[in-house]
Every structure is written in C-alpha cells, then in structure tokens.
Give the backbone structure.
Amino acid sequence: MNKKITIPTILAVSIFAIAIASFSPINVLAEYGDYKIPEISGSIAVNDSDYAGLEEISLADAMTIAQDSVDDSNAMWGKLQVVQGYLVYKVGVLSDDDMYYKVIVDAGDGAVLYVSDGKSKDSWKHSDKSGKWKDHYADLTPEERELKMKQWGEVKEAFFALSIDERAKMIMHFMSMKVQWEGLSEEQIEQKKLEMKQMMEELLPLSVEEKTEKLREYVNSL
C-alpha cells in the first residue's frame, strides 16, 4: 500500500486482510481522535514493559463486550495496552450510522471502564489524516474515486460479516506481522507492501459476498 497512508496499529490496523487491518480509510478513521480518558481503576495493575500473558479475557471477548456497549455497532479493531497502570483492551467500535467510539475494557474481569463520545465521519473529514486518504487517490477522476469509496465500503461490510472470533484472529495476525516487519530491510518491506496492494486490487472489484468469502478463507489459512 501507499506510504502516504500509515496507521499506527496495523489492522487496526485492515484487509484481504491487510488493508482493513493496516492501510484502509476505515483504519484511518479508527485511529482518529484524541480521546481524553478519565481516571479508571482496573483489576490488573501492571508494569508498562511487562504485561504479556497477564490478560484473563481474550481479544474476541473484549471486542464482544465493547460492541455490546454501543447500540447497533460492530467492533472493528482492538489491542491490549496499559492505561493508567492497568491492563486493558482498547477497542474501536463503529455504529451503523458511522459514528466511531473508543471503548476501554478491563483485561481481567471484562468490565467496561470507558466509552467515548461518538465521532462522526464529518469530523474525520476535517482532520489531517483525511488529507492522506485524498492524496492516495489524487490522480483518479471523481467517478473513479467514488467507485473506490464504494468498494472500500463493501470491504467494511465484508469484514463485519465475519464473526468476532474471525475478526479478532485477523487483527492479532496483523499485529504480529507488524513486529515481524521490524526486522526486514527497506527493500523487503516495499516488496511486502506491493504484495498487499496486489491482493487488495484483486479483492476490491468482488461482490460483498465474494469479499466476505475471501476474507474468511484468509482467516482460515492463518
């Protein structure tokens, strides 16, 4: 995918798998917003640098809990983190009316510790990150851009058609892939990005049903 689109968390990061997990506009939206989390109190106090394996619920569990905390929504990404000295999952949730929420779920007892206010697409369109998406398709005609946005919307539909377990498995795969990439050369990374771009070019023209099946096949291959 194009270097102009970079997302900190790699699903989180988008899809054939890598696009919804790393480079799609959906993930730009997922990372948008400077949320000020109020004081929380979790069940697992940890050191920032040493918390692997201390979680008591899975990412899929946390995504289910987060999704249930926002009406008519789907969990689109999540990651294990330390917030204010407590081990939690940060989960991104998108409602059916395209409002984005960030939910903090306790990694021990599964309690919902924080649900942000929703952010609309309109607020995202005025952010600095939206310019990167526009730059990515700057050479396309208005008709071509409209088609791309329609196709990406269908990728979102296909991703949400997967079960939460399938979505969580894909997210964890991309998170581990990000770590693997850190050991690659610049040339190897560019080759990986080219392979991803080719996969997405094959995925985008398919119907929603075909996109869903392709994503499911990818998850089952992991």
